[in-house]
Design brief:
9 strands, single chain, globular, four-stranded mixed beta sheet
Length: about 180
């Protein structure tokens, strides 16, 4: 498993989309209860569920990890990961640091990459540029990002997302060095 993690707005999902284009890498789609953004499609970007549906899935032990963030539930489906690993593919998971910590605690074989912004001002610009969150929500995400940045040394590698292309190239180089990918 290749676990991409980092603060909200750092570009994890965009990087993951590019990495999915590489043969042998598959992304396991995150499940969430948050509202869909205008450019997102259910089943392509995320699997969107109601809170009741999500909580029922928790009860059925369907998630490798799950967490509540900003009032929304997020989870990584366990069966999808097991299926892809059994097929010999490198499973890409993009999750927040809370989820990465939960996955690490499971002791599964995984390579953990922290995706960092060039600086906090750039992260703020990216969050505001989404135009999907209130100024208070952006402030809350930035405060959490500051705390999450303090956890980056717990990861196997840190990649600064100055450009998506550079970040993808660096992650692929790391995956090849660690013999996760040919």
């Amino acid at each position: 498993m290749l676990v991409l993690s980092g603060p909200s707005g750092v570009g994890k999902t965009t990087i993951a989309k590019k990495l999915r284009e590489v043969p042998g890498i598959v992304r396991v789609m995150t499940t969430t209860t948050r509202a869909r953004r205008p450019q997102e499609t259910d089943g392509r970007d995320y699997r969107f569920l109601t809170r009741a549906e999500f909580e029922a899935a928790i009860g059925r032990n369907e998630f490798l990890e799950h967490a509540e963030i900003d009032g929304n539930l997020y989870g990584t489906p366990k069966a999808a990961i097991e299926k892809e690993i059994a097929a010999g593919r490198l499973v890409l998971v993009d999750i927040d640091p809370q989820g990465a910590k939960a996955v690490r605690a499971l002791g599964l074989p995984a390579f953990f990459v922290f995706v960092a912004p060039p600086d906090m001002e750039e992260l703020k610009k990216r969050l505001v540029g989404r135009k999907s969150e209130s100024p208070d929500a952006v402030k809350m995400r930035l405060a959490r990002a500051e705390r999450e940045m303090g956890q980056k040394d717990l990861y196997d590698a840190v990649v600064v997302n100055t450009t998506v292309e550079a970040a993808v190239g660096e992650i692929l180089a790391l995956a090849r060095r660690k013999m996760l990918l040919n």
